[in-house]
Every structure is written in C-alpha cells, then in structure tokens.
Amino acid sequence: MTRFALTLEFDGGPFMGLQRQDHGPSVQQAVEEAAFRVTGEEVRMHAAGRTDSGVHALGMVAHIEVDKPFDAFRLMEALNHHLKPDPVAVLDCRVVADDWHARFSCIGRAYEYRIVNRRAPLTLDKGKAWAVTRPLDAEAMHRAAQALVGLHDFTTFRSVHCQAQSPVKTLDSLTVSRAGEQVIVRTAARSFLHHQVRSMVGTLALVGLGQWAEDDVAAALAAKDRAALGLNAPPDGLYFVRAVYPGDE
Amino acid sequence: MTRFALTLEFDGGPFMGLQRQDHGPSVQQAVEEAAFRVTGEEVRMHAAGRTDSGVHALGMVAHIEVDKPFDAFRLMEALNHHLKPDPVAVLDCRVVADDWHARFSCIGRAYEYRIVNRRAPLTLDKGKAWAVTRPLDAEAMHRAAQALVGLHDFTTFRSVHCQAQSPVKTLDSLTVSRAGEQVIVRTAARSFLHHQVRSMVGTLALVGLGQWAEDDVAAALAAKDRAALGLNAPPDGLYFVRAVYPGDE
C-alpha cells in the first residue's frame, strides 16, 4: 500500500463540488474513477478542502492509496490520461508517508477571488470571475478587510450548513488589490469555515460599492450573526490556490 | 447616419471566425443581429482584422453605421444586452468620422499567443492556450524570432488561402518570454498575412523544443516557400490584442 499526494487543478464549472455527491458529478468521483481505470482498485480520495459547486482550484492537494506498485510520475501521467475530457488535471504526484493526510496534516490554506469590474459582460472569463458592473473602490475594500484579520468568531461569515465544531478561526491575511479592471482578493488561514471566503468577499464588495461604510465590516463581525452578513459572492470567482504542510518552505 | 467604433472582446471557441460564414456562427453575425435588435436597421460590421475559427480577441476594433440617433454609451449597453449569451462583449463604443474605417484606417495590429508548457492537460485554460507538453526553451525562441523582425517576404509563413496582394510585410516586433509554465509570444505590425502569427509561433516552437536550430528560422524565411514552414500553431492560443489608428497615443 503506497500513499500518493496529488496536486490538482480543476475548473469547478461542470461539477457539483469537490466532494462526492449523490445528485451530480464531482471532482472526487472523476479522480476516483480515473484511479480505478489505472489501478483496477477501488481508490478513495481525501482532499485538503471541500469546495462548492462552481469553485475552481489551481493547487488543491489530495491523497489516494494504491496497493499495486506505481512510479509516481507514471501514475500522474496515467491519471491525467484517464481524467480526459473532465477539466481536472494532476499537476504533481509524489509518495508520502502512510500517516500523511491531505486534510488532517494540512496547516495552511490559501484562496484567491477574482472580480472583473466593468460594464461589459464577461466573455473569456465567463464562469471564471464575478462580474461587478458598478465601480469598486479596491483600496476601501482592503482597509475594511483588515478588521477581519486575526482570531475572531466568524459566525457572521459562516454558512448555516457549516459542520465545523467552532466558529472561532484565525485569519492570517486578507488583501484586496486592483490590476486594471480586475480586483483580486487573496486570503490565507490554517482553515476556513464553509462559505467564509465568499461571505467575506461579498461583504467587502458592499464597501467597495459605497453601500457599506468601512466600519460596518467590523460591526458585522462583532454581531456574530449570519443575518448581519452583507452578501455571499458567487462561486465563479473563487480559486483554491494552495495547501501548506509541515516541512513546506 | 452616425458611424460608431466598437472595441470587442470575444471567446473565439464557439465561432467559425470573425467574418460572416455560410456554414456556421460568426462574431460578425452575432454583432449585426444584436445591432438589428437594438436599432431595427440592417447594420453591416467592418473589423480591423479577420480572425479564424477559435481565435480570441481582447481588443478587436470594428465599426457600424446607424441611421437613428443613438448615444454611444447607451448603444454599447444595448448591444451588450442583446449579445448575451454569445461570448462577445462591447468594451467601448464611440462616434467616429464618416470616413474613419476600422480596417482601412488601421495602422497597427498587435497579437498575443499563449502557450502553457507542462505535462498536465489544460483545465481552466482549455481552448484558451496551446498545451505543449515537452519543455520549451523560450530564450532560444526569442533569439530565433529576431530573424523575422523587419521588412521581409513572408511567403513561408502565409496560408495558401491568403488573399493579400503581396507577401512582403514589415514585422515591427516579435518577442517570446516565459512566466512560470506560460510562454507568451507578442507581435506587432501594420498588418499580417493570413495565418502569419500561427505559422511564426509554430515554427518558433520547433526551435524551443530543440528540433530546429535557431538559424533554421532565417533559412525558412529565406526559402520563401510554404513547404519550408515548421508547424502551424493551433488557434486556441491566439488573441487579437489591439488595433492602432492615427491619433492614438
């Protein structure tokens, strides 16, 4: 039995989410079926994060266990071959220790959220960004975001379906910057609550539009009440960028 | 009668090309039909360039003439409304002089070609870049490209279907640079022959792969023979970036 860590890139558009679902295709199902075609074994995939329908990944990390001996590079190539035409690719594959776990060993997660801020509808970026047509003040969004950094009770920014035991999390960073018509939100933490990133981005967008004052974000956080949430940003703009493990630089 | 210049962004994937075709959808048809729904007039669109099936645009320039009086901003908004769900967007719309012509007044055109250079298949960039799986030496490609800059007979790099009167063109710039797994080719000229950019990129890729020596590019150009061409790069990676007119900065 060998455990392999996989780095996955995927377009979340055609999937019901990363995790297996009864009612539609998932990234997990795509990878497990490809692994079955490669190995002939019923393989179970475990991932660092659980992304929703429509959410993308540039560097999701997962692991699988395989009985038959496989070279890591050949396993990656074979998985990629069998994953076609699904928009899921294995960017990296390496052998890890039997007690290494993609989810439980993970000590850091980073997301990026892409907004295209212009009047015209999206063409090449359709499904890959949130189109906000009225002007956003990215600097005001960045300033307001700093109230969320640190150790807080994030109940306001948590889905009612969130299964985490505690709403208390430490947010390591949350930045907002503009590059032309793109407004990019970047955030990192040990872990996030369900819908936390989309809830934070949607609320910051209200600040960017001038509908909320910058201080209103701190007040919404302090309210510890989902009803105080501004807005949940759509999944299209969200990318799981990176998972960090002990020993990574 | 008012003439409007339109700046268009489009995903070339679902189209048979920019120009109207008998056998399938085109960007021209999409814009002309949207203009008919907005104005009730049979509008004819003229564009700075003629892109092939699958080729994209970040800033194609075109013009249309409308009888009824329209404010440029409202015309843009109405066109964008009626262009949905086609992946074509009007980024800018302005009134121009009656003798201004998107194609004949154009004095400069710029293209970008995106290669993703990695083992894994494309997911988010599927249809938006050329996937080259073996390592490319972008610096060698850049050096070899310089032989094509300047005034030359580009017969080698011209489609057999090219309708230009002369194969002699001045190439203003051709650069190749790498950013991580992306290799980007940028080029500008007053005008290009049919398939010229894809022919140049495909041939430079052979240099990048080590199958051609850098000097072979100059020799292929000197041969003035389509049979001397290395390879035609696929349309997926090609973007029409910009059209330049007298008076533009």
Automatic annotation (TrEMBL), chains A, B:
Reactions that this protein is recorded to catalyse: uridine(38/39/40) in tRNA = pseudouridine(38/39/40) in tRNA
InterPro entries per record: PsdUridine_synth_cat_dom_sf (IPR020103), PsdUridine_synth_TruA (IPR001406), PsdUridine_synth_TruA_a/b_dom (IPR020097), PsdUridine_synth_TruA_C (IPR020095), TruA/RsuA/RluB/E/F_N (IPR020094)
Keyword tRNA processing among record annotations: yes
Family annotation (CDD domains): PseudoU_synth_EcTruA
Pseudouridine synthase I TruA alpha/beta domain: residues covered: 10-104, 144-246
Domain of life of the source: Bacteria
Enzyme kind, highest EC tier: isomerase
Single GO MF descriptor: tRNA pseudouridine(38-40) synthase activity
Residues at which substrate binds: Y111
GO biological process entries: tRNA pseudouridine synthesis
Gene3D superfamilies assigned: Pseudouridine synthase I, catalytic domain, C-terminal subdomain, Pseudouridine synthase I, catalytic domain, N-terminal subdomain
EC number: 5.4.99.12
SUPFAM superfamilies listed in its UniProt record: Pseudouridine synthase
Active site: D52 (nucleophile)
Keyword line: Isomerase, tRNA processing
NCBIfam families reported for this sequence: hisT_truA (TIGR00071)
Subunit organization: Homodimer.
Family that this chain belongs to: Belongs to the tRNA pseudouridine synthase TruA family.
PANTHER family: PSEUDOURIDYLATE SYNTHASE (PTHR11142), TRNA PSEUDOURIDINE SYNTHASE-LIKE 1 (PTHR11142:SF0)
Function noted in UniProt: Formation of pseudouridine at positions 38, 39 and 40 in the anticodon stem and loop of transfer RNAs.
Protein name: tRNA pseudouridine synthase A
Species name: Alteraurantiacibacter buctensis
